């Protein structure tokens, strides 16, 4: 494993790391989608998962480390850029809000009492990821509560009970946690008086449900992605540093095909030709919270060794091959409404002893009506890092009366 780097890290370095992680984000999204079936909403923070896996990778050696790097798409990146720990860690720590929005991310390292870590491992996590170790007694359930309380407080009480009962015990030696929280207003807010009950088609024209559909007429960046047979819309937050992007299939039933082809088209500005145009936009209000157990998903993605106590090699943590990852827990939350969005996510790892636009300038732009299943992602525009990613298949809000009374549906993934 590379040692801690003191080399100055540039914006270009961050952008390269984010680009390398975009493929991982898509692979993780596809794997979670397949694991839970084609009719369920999917919602993850690939940024949070990548943060924890990167920290896990600091202590990995041998084939365990190789599987992590290959599955995260970092093998080529690391060979070309030297110490990936310092760049990725710096990218994670650089995710900060400003006067326009709130964006906070933090890492924490919890270590069993009397369990000795190598100086290199402690220094790497502290210098590159800002995760200083805290000693706890995992044999006492209060340690799990302490970790969950930190996550809940950091995410403004949106993520609760990240580590479920029984997830830590006397054999637990190490817990790595990442938490991220975002809240921002749209650059162009939707007028609540225009929100109306309208049909959302559930993958076919003969199956639909009513939703609260938000409407606006304003200038937005939009483009067509021919390879995905879809349209792309950017909804910027105040300051334009962050945006939500909606990838809407042209066909009502086109989501599964779109998802299967996402690796074929890089959804960044250099690949998708977008232009600003005044158009009518309609998107549903939605609120999601998700609870994803990542162990089986990550094994399927090519990382089995770290969960296998017979072969896991985390000798970079303590100098001994005495650890394996028992599970990785991930929770996320998002609320999209007329004002903007609020989102949060947390990921915890427990280690135990063993398209293009072709229309003319004066041509009327077709309205963007997201009335059928779509993919969305929330991106940091400076670096291109995908912070949240999901698919919206099942309507979440149903208006029961003129006062916009709504019901909250929880998706447990």
Automatic annotation (TrEMBL):
Domain of life according to the entry: Eukaryota
Keyword Signal: no
Keyword annotations: Protease inhibitor, Serine protease inhibitor
InterPro entries given in the database record: Serpin_dom (IPR023796), Serpin_fam (IPR000215), Serpin_sf (IPR036186), Serpin_sf_1 (IPR042178), Serpin_sf_2 (IPR042185)
SMART domains registered for this protein in UniProt: SERPIN (SM00093)
Pfam families xrefs: Serpin
Record-linked CDD domains: serpin
Domain Serpin residue range list: 26-395
Gene3D superfamilies cross-referenced by the UniProt entry: Alpha-1-antitrypsin, domain 1, Antithrombin, subunit I, domain 2
GO cellular component: extracellular space
GO molecular function, one term: serine-type endopeptidase inhibitor activity
Family according to the record: Belongs to the serpin family.
Name recorded for this polypeptide: Serpin domain-containing protein
Annotated source species: Daphnia galeata
């Amino acid at each position: 494993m590379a040692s801690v780097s003191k080399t100055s890290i540039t914006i270009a370095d961050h952008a390269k790391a984010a680009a390398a992680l975009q493929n991982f984000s898509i692979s993780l999204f596809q794997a979670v989608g397949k694991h839970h079936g084609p009719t369920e909403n999917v919602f993850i923070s690939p940024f949070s998962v990548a943060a924890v896996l990167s920290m896990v990778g600091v202590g990995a050696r041998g084939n365990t480390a190789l599987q992590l790097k290959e599955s995260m798409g970092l093998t080529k990146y690391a060979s070309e850029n030297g110490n990936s720990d310092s760049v990725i860690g710096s990218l994670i720590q650089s995710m900060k809000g400003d006067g326009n929005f709130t964006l906070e991310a933090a890492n924490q390292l919890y270590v069993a009492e009397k369990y000795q870590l190598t100086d290199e491992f402690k220094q790497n996590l502290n210098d590159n990821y800002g995760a200083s170790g805290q000693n706890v007694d995992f044999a006492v359930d209060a340690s799990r509560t302490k970790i969950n309380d930190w996550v809940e407080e950091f995410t403004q009480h949106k993520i609760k009970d990240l580590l479920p009962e029984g997830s830590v015990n006397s054999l637990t030696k190490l817990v790595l946690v990442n938490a991220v929280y975002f809240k921002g207003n749209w650059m162009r807010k939707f007028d609540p008086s225009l929100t109306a009950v309208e049909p959302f088609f559930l993958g076919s024209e003969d199956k639909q449900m009513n939703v609260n559909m938000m409407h606006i007429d304003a200038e937005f960046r939009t483009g067509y992605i021919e390879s995905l047979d879809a349209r792309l819309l950017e909804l910027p937050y105040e300051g334009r540093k962050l945006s939500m992007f909606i990838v809407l299939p042209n066909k009502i039933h086109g989501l599964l095909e779109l998802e299967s082809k996402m690796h074929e088209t890089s959804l960044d500005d250099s690949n998708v030709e977008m232009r600003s145009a005044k158009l009518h936009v309609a998107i549903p209000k939605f609120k999601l919270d998700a609870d994803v157990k990542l162990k089986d998903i990550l094994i399927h993605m090519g990382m089995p060794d770290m969960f296998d106590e017979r072969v896991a090699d985390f000798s970079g943590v303590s100098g001994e091959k005495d650890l394996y990852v028992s599970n990785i827990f991930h929770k996320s939350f998002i609320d999209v409404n007329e004002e903007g969005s609020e989102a949060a996510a947390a990921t915890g790892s427990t280690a135990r002893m063993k398209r293009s636009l072709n229309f003319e300038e004066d041509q009327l732009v077709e309205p963007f009506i997201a009335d059928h299943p779509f993919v969305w992602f929330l991106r940091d525009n400076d670096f291109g890092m995908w912070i949240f990613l999901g698919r919206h298949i099942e309507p979440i809000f149903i208006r029961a009366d003129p006062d916009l009374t709504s019901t909250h549906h929880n998706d447990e993934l």
